[in-house]
Specification:
It is a single chain. With about 160 residues, this protein is an alpha+beta fold. The protein has a single domain (about 15-160), classed as Thiol Ester Dehydrase, Chain A (Roll), CATH 3.10.129.10. It contains 2 helices and 7 strands. It starts with 8 loop residues before the first strand and ends with a helix.
C-alpha cells in the first residue's frame, strides 16, 4: 500500500445516506415493514460508508445492538444515515440511524439504529489495512472511544467461541 492509500480520512468523507419509499412488498399483513427489510438497507448503507473509507471491497462481520424503536409503515419514506465511529487495522464500525417520515406530513422520527462491523478485504477475501480515521470533533473522539470499547468486547466474545 502506498502512503496515499493509508492517509487518514475524515468521518465526513465516507458518510452515506440511502432514502427508500416503503411499499407493500416490504411489509407484513399489518402494514408494518419487516425488520429484515430494514436490516437489508442498513447493511447496504454501511457497506457504502465502509467501502468509501477503505477504498476496497468490504464484507459484513457483525451487526451489533440493532434497536427497532418504532414501527415503519407502508407509504413512509425512510432515511438510512451511516457514518464511521471506529476504525481498526482492517475493520470499521459503522453507526446507522434510521428515520421514517410520512409523505402526507409530519416530522421525521427515529425508528431504529444499529452498529455494523465491516471488514475490508482483497479479491480473495483476506482482510486488508484501511486508512486511519481523522477525528475532527470532540463528539467524533467520544464515538471513536465508545466504538473501540465495543470492538474489544466483540473480540473477547469471539475468543470464547474458539475454546
Amino acid at each position: 500500500m502506498t502512503t496515499f492509500e493509508l492517509s487518514p480520512a475524515s468521518v465526513a468523507s465516507s458518510r452515506a445516506s440511502v432514502v427508500r419509499l416503503m411499499v407493500p412488498t416490504d411489509a407484513n399483513f399489518t402494514g408494518n415493514v419487516f425488520g429484515g427489510q430494514i436490516l437489508s438497507e442498513v447493511d447496504r448503507v454501511a457497506y457504502i460508508t465502509a467501502t468509501r473509507h477503505a477504498r476496497s471491497n468490504c464484507v459484513t462481520a457483525s451487526f451489533d445492538r440493532v434497536d427497532f424503536i418504532q414501527p415503519v409503515h407502508v407509504g413512509e419514506v425512510v432515511d438510512f444515515d451511516a457514518e464511521l465511529t471506529y476504525v481498526g487495522h482492517s475493520s470499521m464500525e459503522v453507526w446507522v440511524t434510521v428515520r421514517a417520515e410520512a409523505l402526507a406530513g409530519g416530522a421525521p422520527r427515529l425508528v431504529g439504529e444499529a452498529y455494523v462491523t465491516m471488514v475490508a478485504v482483497d479479491s480473495v477475501g483476506r482482510p486488508v489495512p484501511v486508512p486511519p480515521l481523522a477525528l475532527a470533533s470532540e463528539q467524533e473522539k467520544e464515538r471513536f472511544a465508545e466504538g473501540q470499547r465495543r470492538m474489544e468486547a466483540r473480540r473477547r466474545t469471539r475468543r470464547t467461541w474458539n475454546r
